[in-house]
């Protein structure tokens, strides 16, 4: 099961991160926490996937980062969506919906 | 600009990455503590979860662009470190590469500049000169034509789009305080337009300058302006007295313009009265023509032959019975064919050198590749991609190639400078400038660098293809390398040795030829002799009496100059005889043509040159001053035409003298002496019969002086010049020099230059082969350290190990030597045909070069072999 989840996550992680980052500046740990919470512990994003993904998205210009103080006064790297990132997120959501619709249709009607 | 900041501030980026991850870790721990775990346990779980930090830090880095630069830099760093570790290898490879590139570029540049593009003139490749060959006499040519002949050729031909002519002459420039003899060319209308080289200063000659009645003008050669007139720009528009006529200098020609080798060019219209030089000799002009587009040399020859047939009817005296017209490339007269051929030998030698250099580099890289087979197998097994391996090897090759190329360019430019400085005068056209040829350099660089990359990548291809298990299992301690590759390496060494032997053999032949040349007995003494031509103004010196009125007082004056032992008049410069004539001997009828050389000289000629008398006596003063018809002959003359008879008192007839502008009536001469043979056709050609007669019998022919001195001859130039000036203020000597200088220039300079070049080649070849053999033996021996250790531990003596290593090298050397000898034997005929006085089967040369190569090769093997014997068995067994 864990293996399957990891495989599933691989394809969708970028989209999930973009979605979680969308509301406003958020740091890496919070991103992993939120994904875990919202998915009700279905996804646990390992750091080994999260940070390379974040750096990749930053390099592509979909997110940008700033060093800010957290509520506890500790300095952390906060990510937020860029305009290009927002566009990317929209395309990916549209694609995702089409994909799930198609899959659902097949599952409902076939066999 | 963040990306830029990131690049400069790499450590900052790293720190940020660290603290980002640190923050995450702390939050995680805090999360676990908040959920009720004890702090220790929380820390442990968080760390466990975090896992291999380094690995995903690397992944983060890889997501960033500057990473690629960094990998590149790392590749170079590793490559650099690798080369430093193997610095013997690196230095040898770089050196071999640089030598190959440098030497081949330098020589090729010389060949290109001297042979392929020697002239600065407009489209000089399509310029030709014309000559006429007497088909009944093998070495009789006429390369100059009467002015009306040239005018007819110019009008009637269908093959040229331009034809110009020049007439050489000596001119006396009368400065206030003395005279200067300058070489002048009279040139025809359109000459400067024909050559198309803009002047350096002022203007060239123009159409108006050739009109009858135009203001007399002339232009000067750049080199003359620099050497004799101090590069004075104020010279332009100044009037010079040349041969008594005032002329205005209107321009200095471009530095490379040297048409006809003249100091000055003077316009000559066809209408002007003839300038008389050699009595009433009809003046013959040199001709250069430019081939019309698409016209071949054969077509031009055919067209000219038709014209010449017509001309031969008009000027029957100028044309022999059977003749052929020849159209030759412009540079033909300037570049002696002998030198042309030897340059091609050098070109071939240079190709061999580049080949040896490159195969050396290839071999070293192969050896190294074998040694690193295991390293690359390990790296491939650890997951290095083929691309990554290739990239690193590329970096290594790149470093090697760059170093080799830079050093090679440096060697090439130094080599070109040295060669340009040592090329003997007159062996290349005076227009030629020797400089480095960019195209050639590029070619050599491409070949060299290509070799490095091709063979440098070998290990990567090998590593990705071969079975990792095999390579890993081969601990590299045994006999190194796979058989196929060892064979290739050995084949390269054998080939190198063979090529080098061929080069050495060629050098040996050149050396033998040069030594043979130096061993030729001259028959006269060339030391302590000053010589000069004395062009006399023809208006005042036409008859024998006029000539005597100059030379008799001059020779008397010269004798009283301090430092002068004796002085003589001469009509030729040894080791060359004078004019050529048919000869009759009284009472000796013969059917075939008899020829002899003859010279017009004064009584001291033989004593000045120390030519020995075998019979009879030299002329005495009275005989010369009274122009008596007496003659001295050489031994060759006596043997050929008198056999065993006594020639003294016999009479000979020299009909050529009747043809002189100042003719000799009844030119029958009584033989009064016989001298030992002295070289009269240069050192390499067989001697000719030669006769000497008093200079006073005719006023024609160019004369000069030979002065035997008691001190350094050149120190007397001014004193001799003064005596000439005192004798006749309107006369100056041309080209005063020592006889030894001319002898060296015309006889030894070219062969010496050839020997010098080919010796350099052979030495570089030998050095390359030595380091090639050394490199391969040293490397393979070091790979066998383990094996040698075992052998020694099992009781092998040092000499056994020495023998084992040397035996291998000896096999390769002998194979190469045998191959090289075979190649040399095949080539020797071709090479010998370019050289003088050597046989293609000179056993001494074969033995010497084989011995030299064997000796040097064995030393190259012996050094690593000796090192191997000093290995401590214990260390060797542990050696990895």
Please outline what is shown here.
With 111 residues, chain A is an alpha+beta fold. Chain A has helices at residues 2-21, 28-38, 47-60, 83-109; strands at residues 26-27, 63-69, 75-81. Chain A is globular and about 60 Å long.
Please provide a written account of the structure.
The complex is a heterodimer of chains A (111) and B (880). Chain A has 111 residues and is α+β, with helices and mostly antiparallel strands. Chain A has a single domain, classed as Arc Repressor Mutant, subunit A (Orthogonal Bundle), CATH 1.10.10.10. Chain A has four helices and three strands, in the order H-E-H-H-E-E-H. Chain A has a three-stranded antiparallel β-sheet. In chain A, strand 2 (63-69) and strand 3 (75-81) form a beta hairpin. In chain A, helix 1 packs parallel to helix 3. Chain A is globular, with a radius of gyration of 16 Å. Chain B is an alpha+beta fold. Helices cover 52% and strands 15% of the residues of chain B. In chain B, strand 4 and strand 5 form a beta hairpin. Chain B folds into five domains: 2-64; 69-118 and 337-474, no CATH class; 124-333, no CATH class; 482-520 and 746-880, no CATH class; 535-732, no CATH class. Chain B contains 27 helices and 24 strands. The radius of gyration of chain B is 39 Å and the shape is elongated. The longest helix of chain B has 45 residues, at 739-783. In chain B, the strands form three sheets. In chain B, strands 1, 2, 3, 4, 5, 6, 7, 8, 9, 10, 11 and 12 form a twelve-stranded mixed β-sheet that branches. In chain B, strands 15, 16, 17, 18, 19, 20, 21 and 22 form an eight-stranded mixed β-sheet that branches. Chain A binds chain B through residues 27-29, 32-33, 46-49, 51-52, 55-56, 59, 67, 74-77, and chain B through 16, 19-21, 23-24, 26-28, 31, 49-52, 55-56, 59-60, 62-65.
